[in-house]
Specification:
- With 268 residues, this protein is an alpha/beta fold.
- It is built from eleven helices and seven strands.
- It has one domain: 3-Layer(aba) Sandwich (Rossmann fold), CATH 3.40.50.
- Strands 3-2-1-4-5-6-7 form a seven-stranded parallel sheet, sandwiched between helices.
- The radius of gyration is 18 Å and the shape is globular.
- The mean pLDDT is 96.
- The structure holds nicotinamide-adenine-dinucleotide.
- Nicotinamide-adenine-dinucleotide binds next to helix 1, strand 5 and helix 8.
Length: 268
């Protein structure tokens, strides 16, 4: 089964083999896709993305996702590499200095907050706008960004990343309209379970929360590998009528009110 045979995509955000984007790139490769990998220049120096590039035969092009110049060059070079338009794009980018420095939500540095929004959410609008104006997406293509349920509900340790994800999801809905009308390109966000990665583990209380979500979700937490499977379907033609959605990939967590398995643990 090769759901992405002949398709060409850009993957943002593979840092190391824990990264969700790393799993998605490997899975897309298995399904027959050709890809360009990209990350910020410091991540290229510190991470292991070159190794992934060699493994799946994908060029690695540096781009700071907050820079329109870098993104424009990335899209142009990707189209040159592919010899034409792009079928799918994954935005898998998140960073907050306030989270890194463990600032409380009630005592945030607002310059850092703007940086968080710029890197984690506005970068998505920049990518969408350039893809749109450069006519870079093939008709019926698919664009995804990774989100988290703190956009809808309160998870105190997630800090300002909650608002960042709310903005990200809103960009997917609003731009999804314009892309659908232009050439049937789909734009969605995937709201993923807590996953052990560099960005995920930086969230305060992550390991306790990871265990809590695992018990609360009737299927358990969805891991990066299953997220990759889901993203392959969303990049494929099988989901060609799905757009402007925030799609939960969380083992059922988002629909739970109370789970007896958790009550049982609390009573112990
Ligand atoms: N790990 C989780 O629990 C979890 C859950 C739901 C959603 N997500 C989301 O998944 C996405 C990927 O995160 P991850 O968990 O795989 O962690 P990760 O740390 O592996 O990936 C984050 C990536 O963002 C990149 N990045 C940061 N600043 C950048 C910039 N200026 N330009 C370009 N790239 C930049 C990093 O280099 C890194 O590759 C993020 O959007 C994250 O919020 C993660």
């Amino acid at each position: 089964m090769a759901l992405l045979e002949g398709k060409k995509g850009i993957i943002f955000g593979a840092l190391d083999d824990k990264s969700i984007a790393w799993h998605i790139a490997e899975k897309c490769h298995k399904h027959g896709a050709q890809m360009v990998l990209t990350n910020a220049p410091p991540a290229l120096r510190m991470g292991k993305i070159q190794g992934l590039g060699e493994k799946i035969d994908a060029p690695v092009i540096p781009a700071d996702a907050t820079s329109m110049e870098d993104l424009e060059a990335l899209i142009r070079q990707s189209m040159e590499h592919f010899g034409g338009q792009i079928d799918f794009v994954l935005h898998s980018i998140g960073m907050s200095i306030n989270v890194r420095k463990k600032r409380a939500y009630t005592d945030l540095n607002h310059e850092w907050m703007q940086k968080t929004f710029d890197i984690s959410a506005i970068s998505f609008h920049k990518v969408l706008q350039l893809l749109y104006n450069m006519d870079a997406m093939k008709a019926g293509g698919s664009i995804l960004a990774l989100s988290y349920m703190a956009a809808q509900r309160v998870f105190p340790g997630y800090n300002e990343m909650a608002e960042s994800k709310a903005l990200l999801e809103s960009f997917a809905r609003s731009f999804g309209y314009h892309f659908a009308v232009k050439n049937a390109v789909r734009v969605n966000t995937v709201s993923q379970s807590p996953t052990v990665t560099t960005a995920g583990s930086g969230v305060k209380g992550f390991s306790d929360f990871f265990g809590y979500a695992d018990v609360m979700s009737p299927l358990g937490n969805a891991d990066a590998d299953s997220c990759a499977d889901y993203c392959v379907t969303l990049f494929s033609d099988m989901t060609r009528m799905v757009t402007m959605q925030n799609l939960y990939h969380d083992g059922g967590f988002s629909s739970m009110g109370m789970n007896p398995a958790l009550m049982h643990l609390i009573k112990e």
